[in-house]
Amino acid sequence: MTDRCPLNLDAPTARCLVSARGSRLLSLSLSVLMLSACAIGPDYQRPPVAEPAQFKQADGWRQATPSDSLARGAWWELYGDQPLNGLVEKLNSANQTVAQSEAQYRQAQALVRSARGAFFPTVDLSAGKTRSSQGTGSSSSSLSSTNSGIRDTYNTQLGVSWEADVWGKLRRGLEADKASAEASFADLAAMRLSQQSELVQNYLQLRVIDQQKRLLQATVENYQRSLQMTENQYRAGVSGKDAVVQAQTQLKSTQADMIDLIWQRAQFENAIAVLIGLPPAEFNLAETQNIPTLPQVPLTLPSQLLERRPDIASAERSIIAANAHIGVAKAAYYPDLTLSMSGGYSSSTYSNLISLPNRFWSVGPKLAMTLFDGGQRSAEVDRTEAVYDQTVAKYRQTVLDGFREVENYLVQLKVLEDEAAVRQQALDAARESLRLTLNQYKAGLIAYLDVVVVQATALSNERSVLTLQQSRLIASVNLIAALGGGWDGQTQP
């Protein structure tokens, strides 16, 4: 097929000319598409990180199968507490900090849609009226008519322009925005996990305080009976006034400790109210009889940790975005190719505006590039490469911090488990000692001061066991959060 056409423009020749121009446009379009297959800048590869084969403190622990033991993401159900499950569900729907992160994610999604829109042509429509005047160069002529040179122009125009992504600048920009959106989604998951962890910890500590309150209430009742007994013995002349004073001191000190728990419980209750999006005045959490049980904490292999933790996922996707921005910066060295077409009507009168003699049109490609910018483009490339290095270092540090946190909570749980066994033995011994001491006092073999000492020791051991139980529960929450909680390593479609 040839593009040569004769010069006489009869009908067949005109069709030949159109065919030739169409061939050139087709060739140009194919060339643009072939060039668009490449993209300037490096393709992303995950940076290598130090990844141990197993956790140092994981001896004796089983590997995780969280999908087999609980609903995906509902890690708080491991504690088997229905009120807690209800509070977390309220947090998921009403927590304002999570709502802020969710709004940020929607902003990132909008940027992705905007970046996709850059691949399509832009269509503009305009219509207007212009009133203009031009002097004639003669003062006498202008005096003869005040309206000389004034002209009204009506015009309407439709324009289409499209930027060919020859060097991949738009594709790299879309890649960066998509990675940023995925990082924002991971940030949302991290914030939700953080707020869930805070609520569960507050709830568990509140339940331990309820148990401490019940313990102190029972102890106060026992001390009241002991005071009554010493008063009876004092009136009978069996014991002295000092025994009564010691019993009163012990009773009032324990009552003061019980009162002190009220404000501690109120603080946790108010914190829970804010986490579920309620004013503290509108929220009350009734006491229960039991503390949630310590779950068998699921563990994962180190490689799975990289996929489960949302902060690590966010850090890696930030690297993808930074890597794509390098391509955008390097594409600035190359010319931009824009294909544009416009057409419309222009006339001095509105009545015959839309008519064949008043039409105009233009079509053609345009190449534009910066020849000299004083080093701005090279500086931008250097900046984006430095940002990439920064995000890689942040990613690696986030991974290291994740492994450190898991190791810390693993050893904490293991040590607290060993300590709990010894504390329970000490408590059993203190209870037996108290029983024997009370029997001796009732038989008149020892003074009440000996009873006070043993009672104080027993109460201290009781509270130590409860405090240790609280520490184990909190450590289990921290470990689950460090393992990524309900994060499954997948992104929002």
Automatic annotation (TrEMBL):
Biased composition (Low complexity): 130-148
Disordered, as annotated region: 127-148
Location of the protein in the cell: Cell outer membrane
The keyword Manganese belongs to this UniProt entry's keyword annotation: no
Coiled-coil ranges from the UniProt annotation: 84-111
GO cellular component annotations of the record: cell outer membrane
Main location: membrane
Keywords: Cell outer membrane, Coiled coil, Lipoprotein, Membrane, Palmitate, Transmembrane, Transmembrane beta strand
Protein family: Belongs to the outer membrane factor (OMF) (TC 1.B.17) family.
Protein name, UniProt field: RND transporter
